[in-house]
Amino acid sequence: xxxxxHFINDGFGWECKHCRRESGVxxxxxxxxxxxxxxxxxxxxxxxxxxxxxHATIAxxxxxxxxxxxxxxxxxxxxxxxxxx
Length: 85
Fold this sequence. Notes:
Blueprint: E1 2-3, E2 7-9, E3 14-16, H1 17-23, H2 38-41, E4 60-61, E5 68-70, E6 77-79
Antiparallel strand pairs: 1-2, 2-3, 4-5, 5-6
């Protein structure tokens, strides 16, 4: 897993840590009455249109040099040192 100050890559793409924390991805499971495991909330055949369970936005490269990541949701930017990718 690659990680920088503002972004994290779990193998599915770079995600903004701020947006990821805001959406509750990677944190503790919800608690309280009616809290179901992800297995019971998401199913393969339950919907016609597939959607990702992660709500954090995948960051994009700012330009073709692939040196700066940019979160499309909160506009956080960070220069990525060579060898991190």
